[in-house]
């Protein structure tokens, strides 16, 4: 079983800093965040002449439910990747198998991102066309534009207070892409300053599954344990001819 090159091993640390600092690096993960404390409903104070009897709380006060569960990265089992063979593949982390999905009308790909509702979005290799994957293949959302690299997702409450957002970098600027129209709107000009992706790191697609990173390199998919910073063994060979250029997985779901 082929092991990754030293260049690939070195990149895993760069990938982690990318995840931690950039907020969108085609890994499409949603931070777990701290769950806020649930306020305790106030109770009525007995009047002085009540003889110390405790009065019942106001019956009109709404019941307070349990705090929402924190997103669980171990629940993500499927990731997606597109490549130069114009086919979208689904990777099952548990079964360690790739499945070719219907890809009629799909181009050679550049970026892949998956939103929490399960929709897969892709850009063409020249970054000019934007697609959504359907049961039949690639549906064109917009052509002849300029779409970002490092396409990923930003959780509700970050870029937008009302919805999850597709985000990425165009040049040095942080931008948002409308999944409905394909329109690109700048969020932060020159967010990266002088930083740019090197394009020579040997990793061709970063996703996640079962709580770890999935790195596509050397024609294989490798696991990477974020906590221990350990590169694991090859999980599977990439499909022949796939030559992945981007990969993505849905944000961490709640259990």
Could you walk me through the main structural features you see in this protein, from its secondary elements to its overall organization?
Helices cover 7% and strands 34% of the residues. With 255 residues, the chain is mostly beta strands. The chain has one domain. The longest helix has 17 residues, at 6-22. The protein is globular, with a radius of gyration of 22 Å. The two termini are 35 Å apart.
Structural features:
mainly beta
Low-confidence stretches: 1-58
Order of strands across the widest beta sheet?
3-2-1-16
- As for the number of domains, it is 1
**Main sheet characteristics:** 4 strands, antiparallel
Strand content: 25-35%
Radius of gyration: 22 Å
- Helix/strand order, N-terminal first: HEEEEEEEEEEEEEEEE
Dominant shape: globular
Q: What do the pLDDT scores average to? A: 78
The helix fraction, in percent, is under 10%
Distance between the termini: 35 Å
> How many DSSP-defined strands?
16
Count of alpha and pi helical runs: 1
Structural class: mainly beta
Outline the secondary-structure elements:
Blueprint: H1 6-22, E1 78-83, E2 88-92, E3 97-100, E4 109-114, E5 120-124, E6 130-133, E7 138-142, E8 149-154, E9 165-170, E10 173-177, E11 184-188, E12 206-209, E13 212-217, E14 220-225, E15 230-237, E16 244-248
Antiparallel strand pairs: 1-2, 1-16, 2-3, 4-5, 5-6, 6-7, 8-9, 9-10, 10-11, 12-13, 13-14, 14-15
């Amino acid at each position: 079983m082929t092991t990754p090159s030293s260049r690939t091993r070195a990149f895993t640390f760069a990938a982690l800093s990318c995840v931690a600092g950039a907020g969108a690096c085609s890994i499409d993960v949603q931070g777990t965040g701290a769950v806020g404390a649930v306020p305790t409903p106030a109770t009525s104070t007995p009047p002085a002449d009540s003889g110390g009897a405790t009065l019942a709380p106001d019956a009109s006060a709404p019941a307070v439910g349990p705090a929402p569960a924190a997103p669980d990265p171990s629940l993500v089992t499927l990731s997606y990747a597109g490549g130069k063979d114009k086919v979208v593949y689904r990777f099952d982390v548990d079964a360690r198998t790739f499945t070719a999905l219907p890809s009629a009308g799909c181009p050679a790909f550049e970026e892949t991102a998956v939103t929490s509702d399960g929709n897969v979005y892709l850009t063409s290799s020249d970054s000019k066309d934007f697609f959504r994957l359907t049961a039949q293949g690639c549906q064109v959302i917009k052509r002849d534009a300029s779409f970002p690299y490092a396409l990923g997702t930003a959780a509700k409450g970050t870029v937008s207070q009302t919805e999850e957002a597709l985000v990425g970098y165009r040049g040095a600027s942080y931008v948002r892409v409308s999944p409905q129209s394909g329109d690109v709107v700048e969020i932060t000009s020159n967010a990266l300053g002088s930083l740019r992706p090197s394009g020579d790191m040997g990793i061709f697609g970063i996703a996640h599954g079962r709580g770890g990173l999935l790195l596509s390199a050397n024609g294989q998919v490798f696991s990477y344990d974020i906590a221990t910073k350990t590169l694991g063994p090859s999980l599977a060979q990439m499909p022949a001819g796939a030559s992945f250029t981007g990969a993505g997985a849905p944000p961490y779901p709640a259990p």
